[in-house]
Request: fold
Amino acid sequence: MKDYRQTKGRIFDIQKFSIHDGDGIRTIVFLKGCVLRCRWCCNPESQEYAVQTMRVAGEEKVIGRDVTVAEVMETVEQDRPYYYRSKGGLTLSGGESLCQPEFAGALLRAAKESGISTAMESMACADFGVIEKILPYLDHYLLDIKHMDPVKHKEFTGRSNELMLENAGKIARSGLCRLSIRVPVIPTFNDSVEEIRAIARYAGKLPKAEKIHLLPYHRLGQDKYDGLGREYLMRDIVPPEAGHMQELKRAAEAESGLACQIGG
Reply:
């Protein structure tokens, strides 16, 4: 029988000592591949599953490497004392982790069996049968909901949102993991009070959803597009002001009845 810890996958980064994307101090493993093409994506090097070359600080850098679960866990295990003290652990991100479901599931299983807390940042854009196999190894689902309008969602991300919203309800009703809703707040896309209220209204109806995270748009990934020889379509978009984010936070809390925070 194959040792699941020898399952191979493709990643493009491992970030240690993160205080975002889950509770406590975390190690974030970034997986290659995504089904969406969000205009504002700050990790454009994650979108293609293929290994790429990106120009970084004037030099060519290879983006993407194939690893086994066991190899990743060697790095994750190094910071076990920090996870224990801060209630942190492993978070999978991307890209979209569900594009590599066997690898993602094996990583989460390895962490759980090692006593390390698990989280996954994901759009839930996959058949629910794929997600269902992963849920038993997942402590905290950080679920992105970007917009309630399927037409506008497709215009800005390349895909409609019906499947993601359907899966959000199934994940919530499963009761198998904690659920937080994350909303990237993007000017010209979803930064009006009405649009945030619509998302919050939906989130408030999800069983056992804990919190809404409003993630303000930033330009930190802009140089990566230049490095990949791609056009950055949000070049003229200005990040939302702090006062506006507070207004959206108040609207989300009032509409959903859930706690809401700005940032991850």
In short: The longest helix spans residues 242-256. The chain has a mean pLDDT of 96.
